[in-house]
Amino acid sequence: MTSDSIPAVICTVDVVLLTLEQATLKVALVRREREPFAQALALPGGYIHAQDDVDAQASAVRVLRDKAGLDSPYLEQLATFTGAVRDPRGWSVAVAYCALVPSAVLAQAAGRVELVAVDALPPLPFDHRQIVDTAVLRVRSKSQYSSLPVHLCAEPFTLPQLQAVYEAVLGEPVNKVSFRRKVDELAMLEPVVGALQTGGAHRPAQLYRVRPAYRRQLSLSARGL
Amino acid sequence: MTSDSIPAVICTVDVVLLTLEQATLKVALVRREREPFAQALALPGGYIHAQDDVDAQASAVRVLRDKAGLDSPYLEQLATFTGAVRDPRGWSVAVAYCALVPSAVLAQAAGRVELVAVDALPPLPFDHRQIVDTAVLRVRSKSQYSSLPVHLCAEPFTLPQLQAVYEAVLGEPVNKVSFRRKVDELAMLEPVVGALQTGGAHRPAQLYRVRPAYRRQLSLSARGL
User: Mind listing the UniProt keywords for this protein, alphabetically (chains A, B) (predicted)?
Assistant: First the structure.
């Protein structure tokens, strides 16, 4: 399809699948089956299949299903990593995606992925370390002013549970009053009618879920937390 | 370089080169020399040359030189546009970049590019309309909380001139006091020692330029204008 004078470029997708486990942001790694770097832990990734995939986002969905056995409702293009030396097979383009799921969703992937704290990564092949770092920076930055962290939170949840998720992602405490104001402003939640969390030492707390409009896209605010 | 079972994917870069002319945000378009869409106005773009380019950013630099005859100090990866149908030649990956230059720099490109207001685009081939719209949205959003618009401003400039650039990009007036506070917070400028703008009806104004540290990267603030 390309003209003869244009050497082929290797086109892949890589997915940074993030979750929270014990209040720690973790990335899902898979053990590579093939060379290069066979047996190394790496990001789930693979070639774009021009005959099957309608676009690179579809390639990322397919890779997540094949390598981790799951679908991520939130899947965003992160950045594209390119060049002559990042892949020993040749000049390559890796379109990187970022996926966020609650840790319960990763129970489906048990035995297929290893969860590793993003602040304690092992050496990774290719430029996967740089790709993970880019994703973490993006997620932390976006969490300041958007509904992004809700995708890490299993529904339904209470507001204190959601606040704890924001705090874990941001790595710092969040003021309760400004957090509640931000949640109102983002208008991303709806109460689950009649559902209260009971059984704790405190009075029952209202349970919430994400409004349908924000299940696959973000609500943004002009100002950070 | 790819295995025989993986069909080739067309790999290109496209550059959204933006400038301000008469307080209007404009994009530089070039007339395509070859099919598909020969003679149509389109974004400057071209194949990644795996034998020459160290990465896709280098491809974008080369394309800007070849098609517009200029270098853009500010050149940022925007997003990657992919899929089976966006290019009639086949499955394609276009890594899009955004460049910002003062309009005086485009004088070098006279006769090679046409400047068109981003709010009055002609029909564009491929998905170039979507690429331009993505760039404009990104630039307007980033201008709220970063030094990005300084790259549209010929140096040296006065603070009122820079404020006018911010207002043109954002498409709305900016409060002078909060603008001055933001400029201080971003710490992106340095006065040009001994240089004052004279000759107007007002008292002479200090001239500024961008600090070297922020000539190729942004200064960011946590809060918007």
Answer: Hydrolase
pLDDT digits (tens, 9 = 90+) for A128-150: 999 999 999 999 999 988 899 99
Q: Does A84 touch chain B (CB under 8 A)?
A: yes
Q: Could you give the CA distance from residue B95 to residue A95 in angstroms, rounded to a whole number?
A: 9
This model of the complex carries an ipTM of 0.91
DSSP assignments along B81-121, one per residue: EEESSSSTTSSEEEEEEEEE--GGGGGGGBTTBEEEETTSP
Q: Where are the beta strands (DSSP E) in chain B?
A: 10-21, 24-31, 41-42, 45-47, 74-83, 92-100, 114-117, 189-197, 205-210
Spell out which residues of chain A touch residue B79, defining contact as CB-CB under 8 Å: 77
CA B157 – CA B75 distance, rounded (Å):
21
Set of chain A residues whose Cβ sits within 8 Å of the Cβ of B56: 80, 82-83, 93
Entry field: residues in chain A:
225
Cβ atoms of B211 and B190 within 8 Å: the answer is yes
A224 touches chain B (CB under 8 A): yes
Q: Are residues B65 and B162 in the same domain?
A: no
Please report, for chain B, how many H helices and E strands are present, in that order: 4, 9
B15 and B119 both lie in a single domain: yes
